[in-house]
Write a structure and sequence with these properties.
The structure is a single chain. The chain folds into two domains: 75 residues, no CATH class; 304 residues, TIM Barrel (Alpha-Beta Barrel), CATH 3.20.20. It starts with a strand and ends in a 6-residue tail after the last helix. α2 runs parallel beside α3, α3 runs parallel beside α5 and α8 packs across α9. Strands 5, 6, 7, 8, 9, 10, 11, 12, 13, 14, 15, 16 and 17 form a 13-stranded mixed sheet that branches. It has a four-stranded antiparallel sheet with strand order 1-2-3-4. β2 and β3 form a beta hairpin. By secondary structure, the chain is an alpha/beta fold. Helix content is 27%, strand content 22%.
Length: 436
């Protein structure tokens, strides 16, 4: 029997008009987002498989009510009704790319670089001095030879943290370029990393990439640039490799600072509009981590996002240990914790993803490395705190939304915003793509 468990608003995946939507269940724990467009008919998409209790995971956040966020998503900037501040600002610096991936939210590959003068102007306009975390994105930013100048310009504009969103190809091929980025003030690297074998990369990215990505991690480690691995998780392609990705990441600590899983979303360039079997829900990801990673990530150490909407992601906070295990720093106490502000979330990210002494060199001109903490030193407070600083490790996720599963209750709590012609636009609204 059909039961409606939540009311919300979404969009028609064909015309993108805003329409009412419902969370409906049929008695087996699965939850579907169902909606009807007066022109294009009925649509249903799975959003939860019942592998965890959805109500417990969501907590007590209120539903979107009639009359609220009436102009969302089509007049989206950060209107007065948006419920969250900006944690991270994404700034596109090019449309070019050195890969042709089957999945690409930005449809990178063709087009041109954004003129350097325009990028500089944008950075000064978006920066809140001493606070802003800007993510340089594309396309593929590293196709630009002047990317170090852009990083330096971001720091000059007052951005506190500069993050690079990259496929890692040039970082693996050009050590001198990595050095230039570090010296310009790059804070950390978000690197596409879809699996631990090249069959996965051939399917998703069109070529063998594992070796070059391993080299990119090594090169970033030489210059104290912390790397977070970012897998796009696609059913029938790499869902079986979720635990292997995590184990690989831990083996690369402290150069690798964490894994940020992204269940596939269908916007930008996609092979075709998805069926339910081609989707991978947040609770499926949680279940896969539990089954594939075993005791590495205890169930009670992954907590719902309290910065964005809980249905958008989770986070876990750890230390990577000598024996390639993870020591949890926090465990879930209550999923009804107070929501975190964007400022609090940004500070958490910075503490965990920055490597100590980033970008500095010793008197011999070699990148400076912090002395490793020995196992016996962890029994002292000083040794423990040093290990936290040098070997912090996060397990996080972001389940982006597309035209099929867009839920405006979630969108209005988005803290990842794209800078576009003077506006800050929630990520999933900015890249929203018609299905059909």
């Amino acid at each position: 029997m059909r039961k409606v468990v939540r009311q919300t608003y979404s969009v028609c995946p064909v015309c993108l008009d805003r329409i009412p939507a419902e969370h409906a269940t049929y008695g087996d724990g699965r939850i579907y987002l169902e909606k009807t467009c007066p022109v294009h008919g009925d649509f249903s998409v799975i959003i939860w498989h019942g592998l965890r209790d959805a109500a417990d995971w969501r907590g007590d956040l209120p539903m979107i009510a009639p009359g609220e966020n009436k102009n969302c998503p089509h007049a989206c900037g950060l209107c007065p009704e948006h419920r969250q501040g900006t944690c991270c600002v994404l700034l596109e610096v090019t449309r070019r790319c050195n890969l042709r991936c089957s999945f690409c939210f930005a449809e990178g590959g063709s087009g041109e670089d954004i003129p350097l003068a325009t990028v500089r102007e944008n950075l000064y306009e978006l920066a809140v001095p001493g606070k802003t975390l800007v993510q340089l994105s594309g396309g593929e930013p590293t196709v630009r030879d002047d990317l170090p100048q852009i990083v330096a310009a971001a720091k000059e504009a007052g951005c506190r943290y500069v993050q690079l969103n990259t496929n890692g190809v040039r970082l693996g091929e050009d050590l001198g370029y990595v050095q230039q980025l570090a010296e310009a003030g790059l804070s950390f690297v978000f690197m596409q990393f879809d699996g631990t074998n090249d069959e996965i990369y051939r399917a998703l990215r069109g070529r063998d990439l594992l070796e070059i990505k391993q080299k990119a991690i090594e090169n970033c480690g030489r210059y104290n640039l912390g790397v977070t691995l970012v897998p796009t998780i696609v059913p029938q392609i790499n869902t079986q490799d979720i635990g292997n990705i995590l184990r690989f990441a831990i083996s690369q600590a402290p150069a690798v600072r964490g894994v940020h899983y992204q269940p596939v979303s269908y916007f930008g360039r996609i092979p075709s509009p998805p069926s339910d079997s081609q989707r991978f829900t947040l609770d499926e990801l949680l279940d896969a981590i539990e089954k594939q990673a075993g005791t590495l990530v205890p169930r009670d150490t992954l907590r719902p996002s309290r910065c964005d909407h809980p249905m958008c992601g989770f986070h876990g906070d750890y230390i990577a240990m000598h024996d390639q295990t993870l020591h949890p720093l926090r465990k879930a106490t209550s999923v009804t914790d107070e929501p975190a502000t964007a400022d609090q979330n940004r500070a958490f990210v910075a503490r965990r993803w920055l490597r100590p002494e980033a970008g500095t060199e010793d008197i011999a001109g070699s990148p400076r490395q912090e002395e490793p903490v020995q196992q016996e030193e962890l029994e002292t407070l000083e040794g423990f705190l040093r290990r936290v600083r040098s070997h912090s490790f996060t397990v996080t996720s972001m389940a982006f939304q597309d035209a099929g599963n867009l839920d405006l209750e979630r969108l209005r709590r988005c803290s990842l915003h794209v800078f576009d012609n003077g506006r800050l636009v929630p990520f999933c609204a900015y890249y929203l793509t018609k299905h059909g």
